[in-house]
Amino acid sequence: MTDPQDDYTPEDLTPSDMDDIRAERARMFTLGFWKSLLAGHEGMGDTFWAGNYLAALFFIPVYVLLLAIEPLYGLYPYVFAAFGVYLLFVARAVAKAQPKGKLKTASRWKQMFWRIFGVAWTLMDATVCLTMSPFTGGV
Fold first, then answer.
1. Could you report how far apart the first and last alpha carbons of the chain are, in Å?
2. What count of other Cβ atoms lies within 10 Å of the Cβ of residue 96?
3. Which residues are within 8 A (CB) of 51 and not within 5 positions of it... i.e. 6 or more apart?
4. Could you report the per-residue pLDDT of 73-87, keeping only the tens digit for each?
């Protein structure tokens, strides 16, 4: 038995809206999107979520390959550090990005809270990657 909430479709969702959603999702896997994201031209939520976690779709398989292929294992700390540097650029982009959607109409304090939270979270991730990278190579 499925949950009726899973089948919920907003009443104002049209086929045209679905096409726009699919196009936006497809754009997230293009070089242009990532350039725009790192420049801070995407929405604040997109910049935070895609910058921090969609990028993991690339980095995590690379980590696994480096662990699985013994001659490449020595590159592991460098890739880990590169991800940390990348996250520093994402933190900068989150700081520059403008809110859109519901957050665009939210109070200025709420926008500022989420901007500070997003930058702090991303900097925390970057710090972990950069400080731990020398210890990830093994001996």
1. 52
2. 16
3. 37, 38, 87, 90, 93, 94, 122
4. 888 889 889 999 999
- Residue 43's contacts (CB-CB under 8 Å, 6 or more residues apart) are 97, 98, 99, 100, 101
Structure tokens at 56: 């993991």
> One-letter amino acid identity for 71?
P
Positive or negative CA dihedral for 122, 124, 130, 136? negative
Note the pTM of the prediction, 2 decimals.
Answer: 0.80
Rounded Cα distance, 117 and 60, in Å: 24
Distance CA(39)–CA(42), nearest Å, equals 8
Q: What is the CA radius of gyration of the chain?
A: 18
Please check whether residue 103 is in contact with residue 110, taking contact to mean a CB–CB distance below 8 angstroms.
yes
Query: pLDDT per residue over 99-138, tens digit each?
Result: 887 777 778 888 899 999 999 999 999 999 999 888 876 5
